[in-house]
UniProtKB/TrEMBL annotation:
Protein name: UDP-N-acetylenolpyruvoylglucosamine reductase
SUPFAM superfamilies given in the database record: FAD-binding/transporter-associated domain-like (SSF56176), Uridine diphospho-N-Acetylenolpyruvylglucosamine reductase, MurB, C-terminal domain (SSF56194)
Pathways involved: Cell wall biogenesis; peptidoglycan biosynthesis
BP GO terms, sorted: cell division; cell wall organization; peptidoglycan biosynthetic process; regulation of cell shape
PROSITE patterns noted in UniProt: FAD_PCMH (PS51387)
Organism: Candidatus Halomonas stercoripullorum
Coiled coil: none
Encoding gene per record: murB
Organism phylogeny: Bacteria, Pseudomonadati, Pseudomonadota, Gammaproteobacteria, Oceanospirillales
Swiss-Prot/TrEMBL catalytic activity: UDP-N-acetyl-alpha-D-muramate + NADP(+) = UDP-N-acetyl-3-O-(1-carboxyvinyl)-alpha-D-glucosamine + NADPH + H(+)
Length: 335
């Protein structure tokens, strides 16, 4: 069966920032065969291609020319290997319900990543991370198809070149592949990771993957706006990584600044704290604002455009650069 191609498809509801967008053509292939057929059709017709996930980390333009594809590969299954369990998951599976289903089965590994919006296929692109765990800690393989040839390739975690909110999919492979699936390596042996922030205080004694996932959900619900109620794309900026000398200079004037030394000697700062210190929490200009509880999140009140959002973000970054001399980098991708 071939995928239906919808013309002039409205995508405003399909991106959590709620930016107005229309795709010239849109398809949601449910099988690898359908996806391959669409890729070769786009190749034959010379249509520019955009691959969409759950739309939770994406800034869409008002019009997407060519063909927008949202893989709807929605399978997942478990494979036991001694004390480990491999989870084979299609790109179109929603991340958070999968995390909860795995946590309920008593599998350890992804519980700290509960309530992150989006589809599994997008997770490796920015190497999603929260509460001391990143996708790269649990991913065993990433399956892709090359857009030009339809060739399937399975990449090892090393080949994916994962970094903080970074991977090969944001670099060399950007715009060249569509992620079709992931393999996660989880464990039945308890391995709670509770060192981040106040997570340890929020879980009961003898925690289970489910109790940790539930604690993470409650912390996130307190701090982060629900995109179903207030449009946003989670953290709008990456936490900046600076050389040790710059961190020391900042600490000399701001001794209460949160900081996280990295293995290579660099220091990660909290962009939310820097923005907050500039007095920008709750700052609003027309259709966009800085969230009132988490300054790292920019929110869209409705009626705005991608250009306005980018201009607003530039103003926030310029104020932080002016006060602290630290450059903030955007986190969501431009489609
Ligand atoms: N802080 C403030 N004011 C703020 C926000 C934060 O002072 O408005 C301070 C906090 O008090 C804390 C520090 O900054 O001392 C760090 O804050 P938090 O622990 O909330 O984490 P974050 O650095 O703001 C990162 C991720 C989040 C992730 C949390 C928890 C990035 C860009 N963001 O935020 O990820 O949930 O850690 O691990 O790395 C996302 O990517 O969309 C996202 C929400």
């Amino acid at each position: 069966m071939s995928s239906t191609i919808l013309l002039e498809q409205e995508l405003t509801q399909a991106n959590t920032l709620g930016l107005p967008c229309r795709a010239e053509r849109f398809a949601a292939p449910a099988t690898l065969g359908e996806l391959r057929d669409l890729l070769s059709l786009a190749q034959d017709r010379d249509w520019p291609l955009t691959v969409l996930g759950g739309g939770s980390n994406l800034i869409l333009p008002e019009r997407l020319p060519g063909l927008a594809i949202q893989p709807a590969l929605r399978y997942w299954w478990l494979e036991s290997q001694d004390n480990q369990t491999l989870v084979h998951v299609g790109a179109g599976v929603e991340w958070h319900p999968l995390v909860m289903a795995l946590a309920r089965r008593g599998l350890w590994g992804v519980e700290n990543l509960a309530l992150i919006p989006g589809h599994c296929g997008a997770a490796p692109i920015q190497n999603i991370g929260a509460y001391g765990v990143e996708l790269c800690d649990v991913v065993a393989a990433v399956q892709v198809l090359f857009l030009d040839t339809g060739r399937p390739v399975t990449l090892t975690p090393e080949e994916c070149a994962f970094g903080y909110r970074d991977s090969l999919f944001k670099g060399e492979l950007q715009g060249r592949v569509v992620i079709t699936g992931l393999t996660l390596r989880l464990s039945r042996t308890p391995q709670p990771r509770l060192a981040y922030g106040d997570l340890a205080q929020r879980v009961t004694a003898n925690p289970t993957p489910l109790s940790i996932a539930e604690a993470v959900c409650s912390i996130r619900r307190e701090k982060l706006p629900d995109p179903a109620i207030l449009h946003n794309a989670g953290s709008f900026f990456k936490n900046p990584v600076v050389p040790p000398g710059q961190a020391q200079a900042l600490l000399a004037t701001s001794p209460d600044m949160p900081y996280f030394p990295l293995k290579d000697g660099h220091v990660k700062l909290a962009a939310g704290w820097l923005i907050d210190q500039c007095g920008l929490k709750g700052w609003r200009q027309d259709h966009f604002g800085v969230h009132e509880r988490q300054a790292l999140v920019l929110v869209h009140f409705g009626g705005g455009s991608a250009d306005e959002l980018l201009a607003f973000a530039e103003q926030v970054a310029a104020i932080v650069a002016d006060r602290f001399g630290v450059v903030l980098e955007r986190e969501p991708r431009l489609a």
